[in-house]
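Technical annex B. To support the medicinal chemistry partners, we prepared a structural model of the target in complex with adenosine-5'-diphosphate, based solely on the information shown next.
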Amino acid sequence: MAKIAINIATGSLQQPEIIVGIDLGTTNSLVSIIHPDTKKPIALKEHDSSSLVPSVVHFGEAGAITVGEEAKKYLITEPHNTVFSAKRLMGKSYKDISDNASFFSYKVIDDGTDNLVKVQVGDKFYSPIDLSSFILKELKHRAEHILKTPVNKAVITVPAYFNDAQRQATRDAGKLAGLDVLRIVNEPTAASLAYGLGLNKEAEKTIAVYDLGGGTFDISILKITNGIFEVLSTNGDTYLGGDDMDNAIVKYWLQQSGVSEDELKQNKELTQAIRLKAEEAKKHLSLNDTFTAELNGDALSITRADFEQLIHPLVDKTLACCKNALKDAGLKTSDIDAIVMVGGSTRVPAVKNTISNFFGKPVNDSVNPDEVVALGAAIQADILAGNNKDVLLLDITPLSLGIETAGGLMDVLIPRNSKIPNKVGRQYTTQVDGQDSMRISVYQGERDLVQHNRKLAEFNLTGIPGMPAGMPKVEVSFLINADGILVVKAKELRSGVEQSIEVKSQYGLTDAEVEQMLMDSIAHAKEDIATRALVEARTEGEQLLQTTERFIQKNAAHLTKEEMMETAGAMQALQLAITMEDKNLIQTKIEALNDISRPYAERIMDIAVSSAMKGKTI
Ligand code: ADP
Ligand code: MG
């Protein structure tokens, strides 16, 4: 029984809101929901037909647009009017795809610019967003037809490596199809969710998601901590998949019958027919040892052993990608807790076995690999709808929060992925004698220099009583409440002066922006570490110059002329080093200055101590 809610204010019936999960694939797309009774995710399909909608759009005469199985029939016979693999064009310019231009048998406009590509069909132009929106519209209609209720909200999945532009393009396609896209979710994350990985908040797990589809291969290494998914690395081949297996079978048959590829090309109908037979053979061999069929009176056959031989190089290529992904994540095969199989092509037993052998453990393949991503998207949608209270994927800080410290460094108070609500405090002090105010600048991001992060707010703590540098104790505290509102407070503990500011909730970032900031921090990690070290060395050097100068002014009478000269020289050398980019040089000069001042500093300390003792009896 589905629950019916009544709005008490208006007395109207409230339909329980449906949020669908959509896998917008390169080869196939599908839509799924959480079944209202069983609470289990299911892929939507009409009667006995497949849940898969081929991601193919056909433009017929008089402007008729068909999508899916119907459109797929025209792939070979009407290549100019039949668009496949539109996902490959999402967020791309012609330059981006020019190396693979021959892959597209329809017309992709080469305008020689960095602008987003368009596809020309007849005298009309379509953007990849338009093309994807046709597929999404078909999925929306399918869902509405099956569920008999309007469907306006969706979660859509994208590959983990999709950049900002590609994610935004996917969102826009959803909007164009009349869908409010609540979340863009990474495909490997969705697949893991479908296996229940990450739903148990306690467990920390490292997962490899192996996705071999029709024309693309992706391997992603994920880390799940407290229900939070982090992509450690991705690798793959954007032109490797089940289609290559089909082509290998076609070639094998041509060789056997002595027909050349050029000869076959002449006959489009035959090309189409033989490709479909090859795909049929491949699928048949996933469950059987031999395949035999007839095409135009000729016998076609292939054994599983022959097929495995044919695809051996292809499977090897995917292994190489797996190795790279592990290397990038800094992991060994034994560090992987679970391997999730995604994509129709992982049904091939040789693929499964090879991957299982490589990782040294059985793979997760109990969920239908064509549907697993969409099923996971439905689970994510259900979480967003607030139906699954066990998982609170939202209640974390997406990026680190901190303040600017000396030299423009980011000092993180609340690291990213921290639980909300949260409260953290840390003490800071002044850098200059008599400093009576302190600027508190609040930033969000993962980079070491605040200039690369995002400024959220800024305020001045004023009225700090005059004290020598380093004496005031300023406690800065960050408090994020359950609504995600951040309150930053600064208080000078000796005097009690304080000041606070409230930062707007949500921090105004889209998922894509957050993702981009994370990607940037990974991309720049090395140089950031180097910059931080340099800035820290400079700050240390500057502080040493200040204290040395103060010390000399106060104790000039106790220093020899030689010591004065030497100190001045070492100070000058340090001053110069600070202006240069070499952290080691700065450190060397700091040590040199310390070596010179240490002997007289100790001597002067002794004088101070003995004069303090004078006249005192112990
Ligand atoms: P994508 O994610 O790229 O849209 P899919 O995950 O839907 O692609 O995978 C489609 C590929 O899976 C096709 O090449 C199809 O032939 C292949 N495939 C589907 N079922 C089987 C099977 N039983 N055995 C082998 N390959 C299969
Ligand atoms: Mg896929």
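Notes passed to the chemistry partners:
Residues 25, 211, 213, 343, 373 surround magnesium ion (ligand 2) (CB under 6 Å).
The first strand starts at residue 5 and ends at 6.
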